[in-house]
Design a protein that fits this description.
Low-confidence stretches: 1-39
Number of helices: 26
Number of strands: 20
Helix content: 40-55%
Mean pLDDT: 86
CATH class of the largest domain: Mainly Alpha
Largest sheet: 5 strands, antiparallel
CATH architecture of the largest domain: Orthogonal Bundle
Distance between the termini: 45 Å
């Protein structure tokens, strides 16, 4: 036996020497050096600079948090897809490489950014302003919320300023939109096309086609995917919602009084102002000058109503006397709102405010000061807010408990349901993609959770996900059935219908293709019952005569007369044949040129930025460690 031979060998001189060598090695090098292999986890080296895995992880997590803040719970389902996570991971890594390459080139060009410039830039950032000036506490809180530190933020800003110092002059000089470019693009985008549109007579063609059982079976054999029974899952689940928790909130007179006393500012009725207006519309010639005339007369003491009847374009001024009623701050547009709430004395007039509607003059008629009503007068409102607040507090506590307990006791939802005092619900059989189910089973996020490979194969509790700001959800899949091909006999009627629809579509395309060939040769197409034709249809890019995709196909036709394209227009196959191209008038192209100038500059800026980044990368020696990258990707898969 092998063990016997080892025992015998253990008494030999050679074995003892080797044994002591190994013991001494453990003493000096440490056991970990033998049991744990040394792995290089740095995914990329750029010259002498290494990008550590920790930096990659940190920026990836920053990207995920940003996406979760911006898009909410739907991001979580994307992150369950290993392919999506891999693509996002690699995208973040390439972005880091771009930044390092740019910064390396910047450094080589001798560009250095001092501490004062970094501090000045931070202090000028409006995101850190409070009450019109820089607020250090707000800066620190914002940086912490970003998952960063002030020093790291400053260092990142330093490299960003340095890169901009090198790059921005190049972009500014290279991203100029030249007049001839704008003119050509404006002509292209304002161009109209005149086409003949041929549409097959589907109902007639369908009457002429009969499908046999053999043809239906052949279609079935060729298109198995269309006859698959969808995957199904059955699961138990818990839904926790703020609205449901409102039923558990106990309301007493003492509790309401205490809540009201501590939150009186929430029930304060804000200051209101009554005012009247004289409006001279922008369509009136010299409207601003007339408004200034009216204001001069008002300031001189002329009667408001008489001045208003003379100048105002408000048809109802005689009846309303220009009154706008009681207004809270924010009820009017920004400029009018500022003007009204800047007035101090009743009877005072605002200056002339000009906007897209015309010229306005406001008169302050009355100030109704802010006040807090008595509890008895707003009891129902206070009660509603009290219940909402307490339900939100309960939701925060119970959702945290649900997350913890469903994770700590993963085999079923019983412990979690008991911990938050709620019931476990049963889904029954749920088909993937079935939108007819009752909520929340019809929710796409719920179905993605139920049908994710990890949840349906492990039979342990899923992650708790947020369906919206007031509802969270967790499930445990008890049964899963793979998609299965249904027998032909079961779906024979469906196969006959689909086979016929396919045959009709093929016949329609054949008819249109024949017409297309004839027209391209200049031959006359004799009209018959197989199709209808709309002659000389003028189409602009923004038209809604056809679907957007069909419109794109029309403008993709070459400028050659009688050239054509066959494409779908809202699921109806059609043939468009070009008859002529119409160039827009100069006034139209000039109007469009204003719009396209900004777009063209943005396009050039993006292209230049991409070229500079590519050039910087070419100047750097970039080495990828595929094994280190794959190790991180595999770890992500394991976590999913």
């Amino acid at each position: 036996m092998l063990t016997d031979k080892l025992r015998e060998g253990a008494h030999g001189k050679v074995f003892k020497i080797l044994f002591w060598i190994i013991i001494l090695s453990f003493i000096f090098a440490g056991v970990g050096n033998y049991l744990i292999p040394r792995l290089n986890t740095d995914p990329v080296e750029i010259g002498d600079i290494k990008i550590p895995k920790e930096q990659w992880d940190a920026q990836y997590q920053d990207q995920v948090r940003m996406m979760q803040r911006q898009y909410g719970a739907q991001v979580n389902s994307l992150l369950e897809d290993p392919n999506y996570v891999k693509a996002l991971r690699l995208q973040v890594l390439e972005r880091i490489i771009d930044n390092v390459a740019i910064n390396s080139v910047t450094y080589e060009q001798g560009i250095r950014i001092g501490d004062k410039q970094v501090k000045d830039t931070i202090r000028q950032e409006k995101a850190f302003f409070k009450d019109g000036k820089f607020n250090n506490d707000l800066f620190l809180a914002t940086v912490r919320n970003m998952g960063s530190s002030p020093d790291y933020y400053a260092q990142q800003l330093r490299t960003s300023i340095a890169a901009d110092t090198l790059i921005m002059p190049i972009i500014r000089s290279g991203a100029i939109a030249y007049p001839y470019e704008i003119d050509e693009l404006a002509k292209l985008f304002t161009q109209k096309r005149v086409v003949d549109v041929y549409t097959p007579n589907s109902s007639k063609i369908a009457k002429e086609i009969n499908i046999t059982d053999e043809q239906a079976k052949a279609y079935y054999d060729k298109n198995h995917k269309e006859f698959m029974k969808p995957a199904t899952a059955s699961f138990s689940y818990i839904v926790l919602s703020v609205d449901k928790l409102k039923e558990k909130v106990e309301v007493t007179e003492a509790a309401l009084a205490d809540y009201f006393n501590h939150n009186q500012s929430d029930f304060e009725v804000p200051q209101k102002r009554e005012c009247s207006q004289i409006l001279i519309k922008s369509t009136t010639p010299d409207f601003e000058a007339k408004a200034n005339e009216a204001l001069t007369q008002l300031v001189a003491g002329h009667d408001f109503e008489k001045v208003g009847l003379k100048y105002s374009d408000d048809k109802d001024f005689k009846n309303s006397k220009g009154s706008l009623g009681q207004l809270e701050k924010g009820s009017l547009s920004k400029d009018l709102d500022i003007a009204l709430f800047t007035l101090k004395d009743v009877g005072q007039y605002s200056k002339v405010i000009v906007d897209e509607y015309g010229a306005h003059i406001l008169r302050l008629d009355k100030i109704i000061d802010a006040f807090t009503p008595k509890l008895a007068d707003i009891k129902e409102e206070v009660k509603a807010k009290f219940i909402e607040t307490k339900a939100q507090e309960l939701y925060a506590q119970k959702s945290a408990t649900l997350t913890d307990v469903s994770y700590e006791s993963p085999d079923s939802l019983e412990a979690a349901a008991k911990a938050i005092d709620t019931q476990i619900l049963q889904s029954g059989e749920v088909k993937l993609g079935d939108k007819s189910l009752k909520w929340p089973l019809s929710n796409p996020e719920v179905q993605k959770l139920a049908f994710s490979e990890n949840n349906r194969t492990s039979h342990i509790n899923s992650n708790v996900i947020n369906l919206d700001a007031k509802t969270c959800f967790v499930l445990n899949v008890s049964d899963y059935q793979e998609p299965a091909l249904q027998k032909f006999e079961t779906v024979k009627d469906e196969a006959l219908e689909l086979a016929k629809a396919d045959a009709v579509a093929q016949k329609e395309k054949a008819i249109l293709e024949e017409i297309k060939q004839m027209v391209s040769k200049g031959e006359t197409v004799a009209e018959n019952d197989d199709f209808t034709v709309s002659k000389d249809v003028t189409v602009a890019r923004s038209d809604n005569k056809f679907s957007p995709m069909f419109n794109l196909n029309i403008f993709a036709i070459t400028d050659k007369v009688n050239a054509g394209v066959i494409a779908n227009d809202n699921k109806v196959v059609k043939l468009a044949v070009l008859k002529s191209v119409e160039t827009a008038k100069d006034e139209e192209t000039e109007e469009f040129a204003k719009f396209i100038r900004t777009q063209l500059v943005q396009f050039k800026q993006n292209k230049l930025d991409s070229m500079i980044t590519s050039g910087a990368r070419n100047l750097c020696d970039i080495e990828y460690d595929e094994s280190a990258i794959n190790l991180v990707i595999q770890q992500d898969k394991g976590q999913n």
